[in-house]
Structure formats: C-alpha cells, structure tokens
Amino acid sequence: MKKALVLGASGGMGYSIVNELTDRGIEVVAFARRKDRLMQLFHQNNLVTVKEGDLRKKEDVISAAKGADVIFHSANIPYSQWEEDLAQIVRHIVEAAKVQSAKLAVVDNIYAYGRKPNELVTENSPKNPHTKKGKIRLQLEQIYQASHVPTIIAHFPDFYGPNASNTLLHYTFEKVVKNKNTGIIGNKNIAREFIYTPDGAKAIVELALTDKAYNQNWNIPGYGVITGEEIITILRQTVNYHRKVSTVTKAMIQFLGLFSKDMREVVEMFYLNEEPVVLSGEKYENEIGKIPKTPYKEGIKETIEYMRRKNNR
C-alpha cells in the first residue's frame, strides 16, 4: 500500500487510522465534510492531503479515491440519518473502489450481532439483529459482499481515545476535563468492552496490509471488559478527578428523546449497556498476530491528556 483514502478522517477512529498509516510511511488523503477541521488535525503531517467532500455525492468520493490502493471507511452520520442515507453512502464508496481498482477496509460496530448475553462473540456467531440499526448494519455488510470488491469488515466495540468525541466515554471524560460533576451511561457495576482508537487503527491497518485478510470479517476486541466503577477509580487515581459521578439511566435518555430525534434513536441501543456484547479476538491472533491492547489505565490517561491539551489551545 502506497496511498490510502481515509473517509471520516476527522472522527475518532479515522484520526487514528490516518496517524497509523503515516507512521508507516503511507501517503494519505484525509476526507471529511469540513476542511478547517481536517487542517486543524493534520496540517503538520507532510504525508497527509486533506479533501473536503460529502459522502452523499458519488463524485466527491470517486475524486478523493484517485490513486488510492485502499479506502478506509470510518465515517459515520447521526443515527437519525441512517435509514435514509447509509446504504447510498456505501454504494458510493463501493463504486469509487471499483472505478479506482481499490480495496476496502471498513470500520464496523457490533450492532449486527444482536443480543449475545454471556457469550464471547466470534466471527462465526450468527448475526440476528433485533434493532433497526442492527438490521441496517447487516444490510450494509451484504452490499459489500455482493460488490465483489476486496473488502475487510472489522467489528469493534465502542471507542475511546484521542479525538473520539462521539462516544459514550467521551460524555464522561468531557466533564472530567472541565472538573465538573460527570456521569457514566448505564449501570456502573456492569462490565463492558471499549477499544482505544490507536489500538483499533493498528489492527485494521495491519489487516489492510495482509492480502489474505480480504473478503473476511474480523472481530477486534479491546483490553478486556471494565465496569463504570473501575473507570471512576482510574480517573480518581490517574488524573486527579474527585467530583461526583452519577449514573445516566435509560429513563433519562428516554426523557431527552422527547426533545431530540437523535436521542430517541440512542434509546434503541441502550441494551448494550445492560447486556454487553464482548468480542473474541482469537481469529485475528491466530491468523494475523497479537492484537494491540493498551491497558485502560494508560489509555484513559492519554485520552484525558489529549482533551486537556486541545482545550488549552
């Protein structure tokens, strides 16, 4: 791989994928809707060319993909727009890959697996999504498979890390950075899985550099599971945070949904805070190598420090 296109480069995983690629000496086109945001993130990186565009416009995607060997799709849009726009966006990306003879590496979530209580989820686990958004994710996977474009689909748990702002833990951390009372979404005693975005970026880039990895699904787990109480302990011990931490319940989210369509959409996925889906990385470690796993204590500290530096600019 000499050149890559990263869609959604201004988001949490996209940002880390750009950095991982350029750390390996690979030229990158960083694509997102706002050029000013891209410039802010990557203006000091000589291997990055920024490209402003809209994934809903096929010509924008095809133009950005010119000369790319691999297209990394890490872009996302608000939940309320998924049903109308996501399939069209994926078809545009597939068409761009065909026009440019590029491969695809797709950042996906765990929604398509549906409920998997008390089960370590492998790539062979059946996908029986019971939510609207889970069914949409499965539909997108079927579009990739029918396209005959060499594609890697990497399933990740929820993110946290530098520049990962649209996440559950960012909600907690942004109040910590401001030294205000904060909250944990969901029961603080239920252990859930999160992945540090630089780890996820390393894993998917390694897959993209491995020919045999294409036309397969891969589960990329985080550093085990962690409870909200354990996260609070890390915040107390490592970043000197001593304010109150409350619990954000489903009822609270439902109330906010009375005033916001996007918050109404969040309610549907709240089951993941009560019945966490936990991924097995056995396939990756058997066929590719060791999965990068940053301990939560280190990853949370690095994330908070990044957010503090950003706030002080």
Task: Tell me about this structure.
The chain is of the alpha/beta class and 313 residues long. Helices cover 43% and strands 18% of the residues. The strands form 4 sheets. The protein has a 7-stranded parallel β-sheet, with helices on both faces. The protein has a 3-stranded mixed β-sheet with strand order 8-10-12. A two-stranded parallel sheet has the order 6-14. α1 links the parallel β1 and β2. α8 packs across α13. The longest helix is centred in the N-terminal third of the chain and has 19 residues. The mean pLDDT is 95.
Mean pLDDT across every amino acid position: 95
Q: Largest sheet at a glance? A: 7 strands, parallel
Beta-strand percentage range: 15-25%
Biggest sheet strand order reads 3-2-1-4-5-7-11
Q: Ends: how far apart?
A: 35 Å
Number of separate strands: 14
Q: Order of SSEs, N→C?
A: EHEHEHEHEEHEEHEEHEEHEHHHEHH
Number of helices: 13
By secondary-structure content and strand pairing, the structural class works out as alpha/beta
Unreliable segments of 5+ consecutive residues = none
Radius of gyration: 19 Å
Q: How helix-rich are the residues, as a percent range? A: 40-55%
Q: Describe the global form.
A: globular
